[in-house]
Structures are given as structure tokens and as C-alpha cells.
């Protein structure tokens, strides 16, 4: 799924692959309880002229976290050996905060994360129902 909008002279594409979401991973909370991380992964591509900043993000509907940022040309395919940016967690915390603010100014925030999470779950459910219908028709014929 791709969501697209204009923000001034920028084009923003949000890509979510319903079929490529991570398995829900259980983790232990501070009080020893087991919880499940139900976050979804998506990319945000902000394009100006011939270049894009590409943010790999995660959200559980209550936050949006950036996991990687790369600078990419729009019309060129990157070679496998191309440098795609540093390890995000190793960037200066102020720079990480600036990237977060940059996305928030463009509407990529916790509210958007909640919307995308609902969108993915709805799409997955509709695709599953369609698959069931097609499979039943195939078996019955």
C-alpha cells in the first residue's frame, strides 16, 4: 500500500507492505509481565527535486520510531555496495530528535501510526476474506 501527499514542494510517499510485517515478538516488561510488540513497519520517502530522504519507521499506534535514514536518488537504483547511511541508533540524540521533528511536521506522528496500524489490519482482514471466498469457490467447482 502506498499513501501519497504533497507538503509544500515535497512529495511524501508512505509505503506499507502488508505481507512483510514482522512476527509479534513477546518481551518482558519492567514488572516481569510478558507483553507483545505489535508494531508495523513502513517507509516514508520525502522527495525534493531529484533526491529523497527515506525513513524506515515502526509504530504500534502510540508512537512512531525511526530505525534508519538513507539519502537516495529518485530515478537511480542503488548498487548493493552503496552506502545507505549510518546505524541510526549511533547518531547523535539531537540529530535523531531533529529527524523525528522533521517527520512530525509532515504529519508522520503517533496519530498517523495509529491510522496506518488500523489500515494494515483492515487490509489484511479484507485480503484474508477474499482468499477464503476464492479458495471455497475453487474447491466447490
Morphology: globular
How many helices? 2
Q: Estimate the helix proportion, in percent.
A: 25-40%
In oligomeric terms, what are we looking at? single chain
In terms of DSSP E residues, the strand content is 25-35%
Q: What CATH architecture do you see? A: Roll
- Give the SSE order as H and E letters: EEEEEEEHH
- Rg value: 18 Å
Main β sheet profile: 5 strands, antiparallel
Query: Please, what is the CATH homologous superfamily?
Result: Mitochondrial glycoprotein
Low-confidence stretches: none
Q: Return the domain count.
A: 1
Reported by name, the CATH topology is Mitochondrial Matrix Protein, Chain A
- CATH hierarchy class name: Alpha Beta
Give the class from helix and strand content and strand pairing.
alpha+beta
Look at the structure and give the mean pLDDT: 87
Distance N to C terminus: 32 Å
Strand order of the largest sheet: 1-2-5-6-7
Number of strands: 7
Q: Care to describe what's here?
A:
With 141 residues, the chain is an alpha+beta fold. It has a single domain, classed as Mitochondrial Matrix Protein, Chain A (Roll), CATH 3.10.280. It is 31% helix and 34% strand. It has 2 helices and 7 strands; from the N terminus they run E-E-E-E-E-E-E-H-H. The protein has a 5-stranded antiparallel β-sheet with strand order 1-2-5-6-7. A two-stranded antiparallel ribbon has the order 3-4. Strand 3 and strand 4 form a beta hairpin. The longest helix is centred in the C-terminal third of the chain and has 31 residues, at 110-140. The protein is globular and about 55 Å long. The mean pLDDT is 87.
Amino acid at each position: 500500500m502506498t499513501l501519497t501527499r504533497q507538503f509544500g514542494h515535497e512529495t511524501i510517499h508512505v509505503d506499507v507492505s502488508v505481507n512483510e510485517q514482522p512476527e509479534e515478538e513477546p518481551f518482558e516488561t519492567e514488572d516481569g509481565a510478558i507483553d507483545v510488540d505489535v508494531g508495523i513497519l513502513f517507509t516514508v520517502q520525502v522527495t525534493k527535486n531529484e533526491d529523497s530522504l527515506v525513513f524506515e519507521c515502526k509504530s504500534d499506534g502510540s508512537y512512531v520510531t525511526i530505525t534508519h535514514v538513507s539519502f537516495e536518488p529518485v530515478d537511480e537504483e542503488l548498487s548493493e555496495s552503496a552506502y545507505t547511511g549510518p546505524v541510526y541508533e549511533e547518531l547523535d540524540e539531537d540529530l535523531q530528535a531533529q529527524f523525528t521533528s522533521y517527520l512530525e511536521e509532515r504529519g508522520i506522528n503517533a496519530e498517523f501510526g495509529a491510522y496506518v496500524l488500523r489500515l494494515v489490519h483492515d487490509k489484511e482482514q479484507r485480503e484474508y476474506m477474499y482468499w477464503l471466498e476464492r479458495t471455497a469457490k475453487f474447491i466447490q467447482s
